[in-house]
DNA sequence: TTTTATATAGACAGACTGGTCTGTTTTTTA
DNA sequence: TAAAAAACAGACCAGTCTGTCTATATAAAA
């Protein structure tokens, strides 16, 4: 998707800064000085800071989906592939750059009326839910479509709370507990 | 705790605006015009906007703890009092003023380095967890202290995800699913 | 080589922010 | 009634922010 080298560098730099310091705490001047490009160049590629925000969300989401898909695929088929979600999160948590859920935090920062960014995030979470649905379908022997969906939703909720709460409490007990509840659900 | 009528009015107005429109989107000028007080008066009661933020968090938290304690107490002893947490949330969700978790959203808005507000929120979540521990102790016949804590933490996680995700998806399925998983845990 | 597109640096506009200060008026207390 | 405390209005300050603009340099395409 990278339409140009310069554009990629902007998105990568902005993503790093947005995730580390927050959307509102990161000014466009910081983005341009950090990525070593001119302001006019930035506004040549993005019509507004909000547009960079969407590119940031897309960038993080795409990397996340790719990573987690690869990570789960490496496990033995069955419940392991589902529980791997929480092992992935555990690694993510231990990373020094872990800073919670970029999506939820970013949406919390933007004004209420900015529906576009909200919609983008909803779509991404929906995609993540679909990934879990695929995992459940493949790894658990469940007949009813409705039960698959329900199970996936519950795993999704557990995962999401594990991200947010491990970040908030600066401790990995939410990840461990969420994984444990998950295993109770799927076994 | 209301040290004065004026102070109370400031906190109530600021809380309403912070919760509805967000912390950064609400300026002190808006707070003073909405509450009909002078700017000097505001800065006579609070040394900075951050201080108003803490008062806001305290105000919302105190009301929440009081409400949820009263709400659960009204149910029959046993699992009902625990599941009532999610019924309370369902009512909260249906309220036109529902706007997610004020704490998580506010902390997401403030700069990384503002440790004070983070610490306040952690303390409040810890208090909420203690409330759940008390509920579990009272209503479930669990002997081991460690198992009580573990159970409470899991209920806490389910509740938190239900708040955040029902808000994000603008739908109450997270509340229903969280409640269902909770009942599986405690029965 | 000339043209065209895209990069550069950085000044600038204009709106908005949190917070201070002066001076006046009202309310409470003694 | 006199004194003290706390409210008022609002100008003002210093700084931040996004986004625009000018003018120049570079690199690719014709």
TrEMBL record, chains A, B:
Residues 4-64 form the HTH tetR-type domain. Keywords: DNA-binding, Transcription, Transcription regulation. The keyword Transcription applies. It comes from Salegentibacter holothuriorum. Residues 27-46 bind DNA. The keyword Hydrolase does not apply. Pfam families: TetR_N. PROSITE patterns: HTH_TETR_2. GO terms for molecular function: DNA binding. It comes from the Bacteria. This is Transcriptional regulator, TetR family.
């Amino acid at each position: 998707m990278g339409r140009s080298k310069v554009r990629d560098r902007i998105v990568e730099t902005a993503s790093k800064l947005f995730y580390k310091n927050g959307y509102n705490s990161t000014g466009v001047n910081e983005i341009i000085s950090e990525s070593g490009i001119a302001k006019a160049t930035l506004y040549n590629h993005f019509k507004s800071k909000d547009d960079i925000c969407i590119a940031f969300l897309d960038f993080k989401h795409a990397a996340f989906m790719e990573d987690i898909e690869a990570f789960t695929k490496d496990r033995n088929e069955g419940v392991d592939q589902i529980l791997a979600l929480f092992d992935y999160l555990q690694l993510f948590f231990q990373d020094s750059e872990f800073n919670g859920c970029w999506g939820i935090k970013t949406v919390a920062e933007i004004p209420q009326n900015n529906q576009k960014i909200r919609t983008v995030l909803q779509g991404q979470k929906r995609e993540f839910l679909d990934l879990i649905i695929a995992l459940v379908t493949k790894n658990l022997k469940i007949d009813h479509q409705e039960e698959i969906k329900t199970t996936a939703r519950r795993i999704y909720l557990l995962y999401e709370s594990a991200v947010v709460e491990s970040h908030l409490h600066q401790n990995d007990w939410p990840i461990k507990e969420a994984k444990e509840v998950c295993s109770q659900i799927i076994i």
